[in-house]
Amino acid sequence: MRELSYSAAASEALREEMERDENVFLIGEDIGTVGESEDLFTEFHQRRVWQTPISESAFTGLAVGAAAVGLRPVVEIMYCDFVTVAMDQICNQAAKIHLMSGGQIKLPMVIRTPAGCGTREGGHHSGSLEAWFMHTPGLKVVMPSTPYDAKGLLKTSIRDDGPVLFIQHRRLHPGTQQVPDGEWIVPLGKADVKREGKDITVVATSYAVTKTLVAAKALEKEISAEVIDPRTLVPLDIDTIVASVKKTGRLLVVHEAHRRAGAGAEIVRRVVEEGVDFLKSPPRVLGSQNVPIPYSPPLEDAVIPQVADIITTIRSMVKGSPSL
Question: Is the pTM of this model over 0.85?
Answer without folding.
Answer: yes
